[in-house]
Amino acid sequence: TRREARRARSEPPGDEPVQVVEPAPGMPLDVVDLTTLPAGRRAAEADRLVQEHARRPFDLRRAPLLRALLLRTGRFEHVLGLTMHHIVFDGWSLPVLVRDLSAMYEARAGGRVAELPELALQFSDYAAWQRENLTADRLRHHLDHWRAELAGMSMLELPTDRPRPAVQRHRGRTHRLTIPAPVALRLRGVARDHGATTFMALLAAAHALLAAHATDPDVTITVPLDNRTVPELEPLIGLFVNTLPLRTTTAEADPTFGRLLRHARAVTLAALPHQELPFDQLVQHLHPHRTLSHNPISAVFLTVTPAASAGAPPGWQVRAVELGVARGDLTLAFEDGAEEITEITAAIEYDSDLFDPDTIERLGERLVRLLDSATSDPGRPLSELSLTTDGERRRLAAWGAGLVTAFPRDRLVHELVAEHAAARPDAVAVVAGDLTLTYGELTARANRLAHGLRSLGVGPDTAVGCCLHRSPELVVAMLAVLIAGGAYVPLDPDHPAERSRFMLADSDARLLITSAGLRVAGWSGPVLDLDELDLPAGPADAPTPDVRPEHLA
After folding, report:
1. FRET partner for 353 with CA separation of 20 to 30 A, picked from 39, 272, 478, 511?
2. What predicted TM-score, i.e. pTM, was given to this entire model?
């Protein structure tokens, strides 16, 4: 009860909620005995109950915004589930809570009363100080720094396994990995040699990893900082954390890892004096492009926090429960232990609407490989650091050892398809569910469509848009455009109409092939609907336009 966060609730009396601290609200402890279950089922049932306990919503008007569940899993083994609302708790509060719990537990087990030190400050003192300190002049001073730091910044775009939904649903998964102790030891040493911290070294590594995968080397990473700027705040529990965008892009096109680490150090040190500016006010004043599909400024997060078990007595295991929520596209989360020689545990939290588990697993493997390579020789340029894992090298070697076919460079794709169809007309060319097309059927349909396209003016150097779902019709249409001498421009029917219109205009497309009611809103050019096209039956010879390898396709 000596901590206000333990007794706080929110009360909405007017336009803005206020925090109310109760004198000493009780906190019921739900106790469930799982020892009646078979031993092999207890761990799974404990996980299920903790998940269920954590997912229950809070009523912010009722204190405490913390609840507890105690599960008895053995004669001398228990699981304590603690769920805290983020409004009164942040990641840096966890080791503080664990130290308090362990001190009280050991005192009670020894028949003593725990003697915890008095707190010099409470969270309400910090909140009052923050309100008084963020004057208009000080706010302008912080904003000037961030405007200069983020001027001309572009949104970091990573290749995804699926198109981005129009509205982000924050459905997430987590992939866990470990940075081995030898690599972690070298990482801390390289950081120390460059006058930097482990956080700065991990920030540089995150930049190198993301820049290698992004479409634009301009890398800005959102970083939650503990915001405990004076020693008196360190032993407090509460929501002190603030989120800041750190733009780590250097002026050099291909810096060494050491140079990138020094740059990450400079960016971090320049940001720390301005970390008290609330992120929502930063977004409000910067006016970035806002969309419901991703977070503002940057959708990639990096967190480096103390190990959850820091301060826990022997025999305690402390871990966070995963609730299947993604705060952004990706979060690289590291737990750095207090011991110099220990490994670093890490997790990649990701938006499961965008990425497949296999993709994130490979990304984690590349991160470890990158750290191994960078810390072994920090003087090497980023382009020379190895990202390829042993598994990827084996797959590439196996692929490279396969048969190699030398295709003639002066032949056209549709000619090679036609030759194969003539030699093996009954061979399967296209499979879609239960439907198959042989090479003979494919070329016959494509040839008939190609004659129709020729009659509409398609020939060499003519761009033709193909807005079709993944289907045999799409394969037929693309092949027909090539046979007619043109070049196809594939359009994803799920993309916004504005993007498809831009692609059609930018490619100077003369015709749009579509079907099944698919249209590109605002497109005023000619449209060929395959569902309304009446092609003649029977085999058809291919038209013979004067098309050569140097033409557009």
Report:
1. 478
2. 0.69
CB 156 within 8 A of CB 216: yes
Q: Please, are residues 440 and 421 in contact by the beta-carbon 8 Å criterion?
A: yes
Radius of gyration of the chain (CA): 30
| 453, pLDDT greater than 70 | yes
CA 364 to mean position of chain CA atoms: 12
- Pinpoint the alpha helices (H) of 430-510: 439-455, 472-483, 497-506
pLDDT at residue 342 tops 90: no
pLDDT tens for each residue of 67-91: 999 999 998 999 999 999 988 888 8
508 vs 456: CA distance, rounded Å:
16
- Return the residue matching tokens 């449209």: 527
**252/266 Cα distance (integer angstroms):** 15
Q: Provide the token pair at 91.
A: 């990641």
Residue 367 has pLDDT above 60, yes or no: yes
pLDDT of residue 341: 66
Backbone phi, then psi, for 40, in 5-degree steps? -70, -15
d(CA 58, CA 56): 7
| Cis? peptide before 64, omega within 30° of 0 | yes
Question: What span, in angstroms and rounded, lies between the C-alpha atoms of 169 and 518?
Answer: 26
CA distances to 188, 329, 493 from 221, in Å: 21, 11, 32
Q: What is the DSSP string of 9-55?
A: EEE-SSSS-EEEE-S-----EEEEE-TTS-HHHHHHHHHHHHHHHHH
Question: Which secondary-structure segment (H or E) carries 75?
Answer: none
Cα angle value 473/479/483 (rounded, 5°): 135
Q: Look up residue 510 and give its two tokens.
A: 């003369």
Q: What are the structure tokens assigned to 293, written together?
A: 């599909």
Residue bearing tokens 């942040």: 90
d(CA 214, CA 240): 32
> Nearest-5° angle of CA 66, CA 68, CA 74?
160
Angle formed by the axes of helices 279-286 and 136-149, to 10°? 70
Closest CA to 497 of 465, 474, 529: 465
Distance of CA 483 to the CA centre of its chain: 42
**What is the three-state SS of 268-334?**
HHHHHHHCCCCHHHHHHHHCCCCCCCCCCCCCEEEEEEECCCCCCCCCCCCCCCCCCECCCCEEEEE
Q: Are 222 and 301 in contact (CB under 8 A)?
A: yes
Name the DSSP letter for residue 175.
Answer: E
Q: Kindly indicate the confidence band of residue 483, based on its pLDDT and cuts at 50, 70 and 90.
A: very high
Does residue 437 sit in helix, strand or coil?
strand
Tokens of residue 345, six digits: 């545990």
* Rounded-to-integer distance, Cα 538 and Cα 5, Å: 79
CA 137, CA 178: separation in Å to the nearest integer? Answer: 45
